[in-house]
TrEMBL record:
Example of a GO biological process term: gluconeogenesis
HAMAP family to which the protein is assigned, alphabetical: PGAM_GpmA (MF_01039)
Function statement: Catalyzes the interconversion of 2-phosphoglycerate and 3-phosphoglycerate.
UniProt pathway annotation: Carbohydrate degradation; glycolysis; pyruvate from D-glyceraldehyde 3-phosphate: step 3/5
Residues the entry annotates as binding substrate: 10-17, 23-24, 62, 89-92, 100, 116-117, 160-161
Gene Ontology MF terms: phosphoglycerate mutase activity
Name this polypeptide is given: 2,3-bisphosphoglycerate-dependent phosphoglycerate mutase
Lineage, highest ranks first: Bacteria, Pseudomonadati, Pseudomonadota, Alphaproteobacteria, Hyphomicrobiales
Domain of life: Bacteria
Active site: 11, 89
Coiled coil: none
Catalysis: reaction(s): (2R)-2-phosphoglycerate = (2R)-3-phosphoglycerate
Amino acid sequence: MSDRLLVLVRHGQSEWNLKNLFTGWKDPDLTEQGIAEAREAGRKLKAQGLSFDIAFTSVLKRAQHTLDLTLAELGQTNLPTKRDLALNERDYGDLSGLNKDDARKKWGEEQVHIWRRSYDVSPPGGESLKDTLARTLPYYVQEIQPCVLRGERTLVAAHGNSLRALIMVLEKLSPKEILARELATGVPIIYRLNADSTVASKLDLA
């Protein structure tokens, strides 16, 4: 059995991250900084001597572009890749496209904080983190985890909240603990799993 390797990377900075907008399922691309972050992710993984057998990403271009740039640095531009909306960012519903400061003016600081930082309260027309987990986790269990356990070195390029769902399971975190976890853009997290799917080791390449 070869290495049970799983690497998670949040997309590089997007145009809407830069503008402080709620993004969700909207589809802005990477900024120049985001492009640099994605390339740097690839260089960091290469420096670790890593290569991959399969990749997963969302249907949103900021994650796909991050994956493409990362793989280019690894010399693996033809890597088999699966794209699925199960890995999309949390859907912010009516908040999508709004400046976060403007949203606070409209609904109040406390309400916006609840939407952003509670586990099971969703914004109008959108998803809570719990909803995002309900979408992302079955996909992980059915599609991604079996690849890792077969010894296929697996790279996942996705979003802050969809990756939180995976990290919650991998690290056995409570809803409160996962809400406190911040994921930097473009920073790979390297997991090696035991045969029973628990985490044998973790390395954050920040």
